[in-house]
Amino acid sequence: MRVLGIESSCDETAAAVVEDGARVLSDVVASQEDLHAPYGGVVPEVAGRAHEANIVPVVGKALRDAGLSLAGLDGIAVTNRPGLVGSLLVGVQAAKSLALATGLPLVGVNHVLAHAHANMLCGTALRFPLVALVVSGGHTSLYLCRSPLEETLLGATVDDAAGEAFDKVAALLGLGFPGGPAVDRLAREGDRGAVRFPRTRGAKGTLDFSFSGLKTAVLYHLRGQDARPGKGANRAGVRPADVAASFQEALVDALVKVTLEGARRARVRQVVLGGGVAANGRLRERMAEEGAAAGFEVVLPPPRLCTDNGAMIAALGTRLLEAGVRDGLDLDVHPRLLRNPTVKKAPPRRPAPAGGRR
Ligand code: KG4
Ligand code: ZN
Fold first, then answer.
1. Taking Cα atoms as reference points, which of 191, 288, 274 lies closest to residue 240?
2. Does residue 337 contact residue 109 with C-beta atoms inside 8 Å?
């Protein structure tokens, strides 16, 4: 089964063709990093316009690289949630147009869950039920997945996403955007015990995360109690590497503790990581060590599969299509995640959605 995966939820226009949910035949990503770098973050309007310009060439290249025409595909999967609404619309509209023109089955995919399913592309078997932590610039979400069709959101950030906190602290340290990789590198030269930043979490008893207080604590440490973001210089005598290492330790501490607590509560055996921040060296190290010590099998994706791509959308899309899940041409976009358990009912298999297959 060959599935085209389309991704446009944030600042990457991506398309890929994946065979049987595991073999990547092509994987094309048009990054908008340079467009957003001057602003220190993703500007939604700029992202939507760039997706519009990129989507057709990116999908065309994914098909060419795979050596296929549309007739060689068996289905189309597209990110329809969560993300920037204007960005999501571009990918979903492209996918629906292709489905209408070809009669191929179409399925909308949860981007956050797809990050966890990226692990299938490197030969790792996902053993359900599992707990997945997806950490990126836009999301920090903990899921219980009973199957590829059945997920419950156990917890999420109540304010900043982990990657957003990395990017904002990087900006305070003058490290540029995206800042996560730069903080990760600088932290290796620092003392992670130098500053005891607060270990913030969501409300007591929940599996939620909260990082805006940590980010503010870094700001005050660097520039004093009256500091405002974007104003003033860092205090003399502060070692940026120590701040990077101490901040990273506090953030990773919360991610590891809440995730393992979620895994214990849900009584799963496998803990799976995904998303851009899953490339972070200290997070990988601690999750592997502490997860194994607690008796879990920890799955860490190779760094190249951590960031946004179309292959992960095709991988999860394949599982959904195989189970008979289909969306029609009324498929809509959803900027936010739903808290309620989502169970996709596989309808009886039938050729869908519209038009005749060529
Ligand atoms: O998944 P992703 O490519 O895009 C989103 O969906 O957001 O994640 C990008 C985020 C950025 O915030 C970036 O700073 C962060 O992942 N990131 C890292 C590392 N590599 C990327 N954060 C910490 N350490 C890293 N090594
Ligand atoms: Zn992502």
1. 191
2. no
The answer to whether the CB of 160 is under 6 A from ligand 1 is no
* Tens digit of each residue's pLDDT (9 = 90 or more) over 158-216: 999 999 999 999 999 999 877 999 999 999 999 999 999 999 889 999 999 999 999 99
Specify the CATH number of the domain 125-303: 3.30.420.40
71: amino acid identity, one letter: A
Assigned fold of 2-117+307-343: Nucleotidyltransferase; domain 5 (3.30.420)
Q: Is the CB of 10 under 6 A from ligand 1?
A: yes
CB 14 within 8 Å of CB 78:
no
User: How far apart are alpha carbons 170 and 90 in whole angstroms?
Assistant: 30
Is residue 262 in contact with ligand 1, taking CB distance under 6 Å?
no
Q: Quick: pLDDT tens for 61-97.
A: 999 999 999 999 999 999 999 999 999 999 999 999 9
d(CA 81, CA 89): 10
125-303 has the same fold as 2-117+307-343: yes
Q: Is 275 in the pocket of ligand 1 (CB under 6 A)?
A: yes
* Cα of 308 from ligand 2 centre, angstroms: 5
Closest atom of ligand 1 to CA, residue 279: 26
